[in-house]
Amino acid sequence: MFQKSNRTLFIIIAVILVSRFISMILVPYGDTTEARYGEMARIMSETGDWITPFYDYGVPFWGKPPLSFWSQAIFFNIFGIHEFSARFPSWLASLGIIVILYKLTAIVYRPSIALISVLIFSSSFIVYLMSGAVLTDPYLALGTTLSLAAFTIILQGNTSYWRYLFFIGISLGMLAKGPVALILIGGPIGIWLLMSPRRWSSLSKLPWLSGTLLVAIIVLPWYIAAEMKTPGFLEYFILGEHYYRFVDPGWAGDLYGTAHKQTHGTIWLLWILAAFPWSIFAIYLLIKNLISSERYQSSIAVLKNETLSLLVIWAIFPMLFFTMAGNILITYTLPAIPPLSILLALKLAALKKPYHEGTQQIKLLITALFVPMLVLTMTMYVVNHPSSYPSEKELIHKYKTVSNNNTALVFITEASFSARFYSRSRIEILDPQNLKYFINKNKDKTLYYVATDNFYTKFTNHTKTKLIYESYDYVLFTIL
């Protein structure tokens, strides 16, 4: 039976997890990333093509493997085409990480610390955000967490099914984001092995031959089929996405947008936001240790402890790896949050005033609820001010209302992914150079146009129009 304090933690964790459903249901897909992946999953669901994700009809997407698109398309088929369907698999992936995290901490330490680690993990900014978003990163984090948790448990002498879960984690990572999973899993283990010659014997606990065969059986069929179906995929995906994107911050070869150029080392600043509010506690503990007279002895003790040293390396390796990369996103920090949660839980459990005592428990719970309350507040604002959010759901709704969905909707220059998703791609895209001809050709028809605010302002200087709706990025109008 849980102690009273443990029951309280369990209830708060459940509230945090379920509260994510609110924004998953109410907030529309935002441009560009979430709406783009949602539209790609919708196309997969519609076409039934389970090999190649499509960026647009007839345009293959070579940027990511299909694990996330598979799950989202499956849920579209089950629950229908709406926001919650494609977001729910990410929530399930995050729940899977939580189960692994709890199991790992309970085996290595004890269940009470496992609950604290789960509370920290589930209430971290990046985890709470990613657990209800249409993205690929929760699936990568699920794979890396499973492999590294399995390896840590194997070190404790538990070599049953965890030996093969290590390789299943690699497979998930390879199907979620590709070879970067091997780096995020092998990197921490490699550094940990180099710290002591005696640790190399731990590798013998893994079934390398049968495990590698298992990975090949799970992963290779899709990679081979994808290259055969759209030749050129492997060259772009392996070299482009895993080499040029890393070494060239302004990589011009990106087929699906622009590179996210950042100053080297920015990943550490992104980590502070990603792990917030717990990153503040982690920084405080680090500074406290650095100024402590016993800092040398405590550091040596951590390095000598096989489990603690592995957790520390696991917690900092993603940031170390991406420190020299200029093309980064905050989501790259997600695989580092599970081990950080365990390390902070250990520190909280070791406080002179136990966490389950009145004041300490209240502080813990207030900290854990900060991010969920912030996100819920933002959700209510977006619901009441849809034009403040970069999504065209309301614009498409306005168009369907005034037109009865019987006349064409024409996007001038380009259409956002959220517009494609909510219109089910039943739109026309018009080059501005052909606009005058198009208007004259359809002067007897009532058509509805969408353009950027700047274009619309210039256009109304010489053409009479009627403004119907103005969204975050676009203006819906008709020509009188």
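That was protein one. Protein two is written in the same sequence-then-structure order:
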Amino acid sequence: MIPTFNFIYIDPGTGSMLFTILIGVLSAAAYFLRNSFMKLKFIFSLGKQEKIEDDNLPFVIFTDSKRYWSMFRPICEEFEKRKQKVVYMTASPDDPALNENYEYVSTEFIGEGNRAFARMNMLKADVVLSTTPGVDVYQWKRSKNVKWYAHVLHMPNDVTTYRMFGIDYYDAIMVSGEYQAEQVRKLEEIRHLPEKELPMIGLPHMDALRERFLAEGELPAHEKTVLLAPSWGTSGILSRFGGKIIDALLKTGYHLIIRPHPQSFTSEKEMIEGLMERYPNSDRLEWDSSNDNFDVLRCADILISDFSGVVFDFSLVFDKPVIYADTSFDKGPYDAWWLEDELWTFRILPKIGRQLTEDNFGNVGGLIEECLNAPAFAEGRNTAREETWANIGHSAELAVDYLIEKRQSLSEKQESVKESA
């Protein structure tokens, strides 16, 4: 008789909950063992008044992906300039930061996926800075040994385009525009959350990109180039339109560069590989997946995208027009679902470019020429900068100012509590 086995199906939500419970147990065990070790150390030292150093890290930067190094690099360099120690923790084994040679900034690979979150869940630090949403919502839990969590935006657009509850449990959100602060306050009111601190710092990665762009000087003569750089997910251009939009762009005669969102190579691997096989590299078309997007942004004359943040990198830093696809953005999975207001992104897009729909695919060449030559779009780019890019050129400086001042105030508060006890 062949034995039979009954397998229990665990849905993803239950699996995430069980993982969270496991991490909590492991964290408690680690904390207990460490305290026990310190007590034994004291006993075996025969009661000597040995000072046990506080091993809290002063500042930690955490990133779940190497693609955010361009955003954190200016901040790390500002810490280095001020001779302030900070630990940069990354979940990417090939993060470019690991190859940097700083004196005051140390870099560390802490494992991928859940291993990285497990490390963060047991972290001892004064202040943690990250651009990863979902703290205390998914696998990443607030450590009881971290005093302050600050979030820095990695795109100049709506805070509400994070997945639901993505920023709820941070202590501070570093914003770059007043409309972002207003969105945070509305979410706090609806969900009865305590008010976060909302320092207006700007956009470190765009400041660095602008500085690099200005240093490069004028672009040499080149073939007119269109960059197709969509976001990922079911609302993204390639997911909705696939080869249809590639065919339309190839018919224009312009050189075409396709740069999928990095997450597409993981979450939409089959679709991307299918398109790359159907449309291989040629003298008319090239696929780009480089970690640094500077060169393709600089050489392109116009960008076609959807709700990806690269729209604003391209238009506001490189001062070039965009065409944005009609992707019928679904607010369902995002914090935007909770607010009735129109997203700032979709309010500003008509001012900086033209919309591409399936109905006008056949005239995409005409749309490109219109966007390249219409002065109204240049005026729209100026408006967008004013609304979403505060403190141009000073954001990294202001970010580090805030973090240092916050740590100092937390320390003073802690000392005050000790004195009054």
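The longest helix spans residues 12-44. Keep this in mind for the problem set.
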